[in-house]
Amino acid sequence: MEIPHRLAVRLAAISLLLASVAHAAAQDIDVYKRATCGCCAKWVEHLRSNGFMPQVHELEDIDPVKRRLGVAPELSSCHTAQIGGYVIEGHVPADLIRKLLKEHPDARGLAVPSMPAGAPGMEGASKMAYDVLLIKRDGSYSVYARR
Length: 147
Prior knowledge:
Blueprint: H1 5-25, E1 27-33, H2 38-49, E2 52-58, H3 63-69, E3 80-83, E4 86-90, H4 94-103, E5 107-112, E6 131-136, E7 141-146
Parallel strand pairs: 1-2, 4-5
Antiparallel strand pairs: 1-3, 3-4, 5-6, 6-7
């Protein structure tokens, strides 16, 4: 059975509209990491599988990026990202990045210090509870979520 021309045109238009909506829902995020970091690559895949479009920048030294974005050493992890004017430090879950962007608090961003087992990109046999911290404009921080 052949689809009438008008119906085919409408279906093509709907298909293009759906593709553009899906693309608009995906958000670019700049990720700064070392080329050799496996858990960073897994976190990038976590972002992709959750609708983000990571732009990965592999650097030998990401500390200057952390300093420029105001990430204190005690909040540091193995990778740093930037999205919507916010810094994302470490293995922050994608759903909390979306929540941050939706709520749009007056803050620098989110951080998961260190590399807690079970966080996105750190999946494995063991899992530990960890805090996702909200980095405030003055550099202080508070618990944004517990995982």
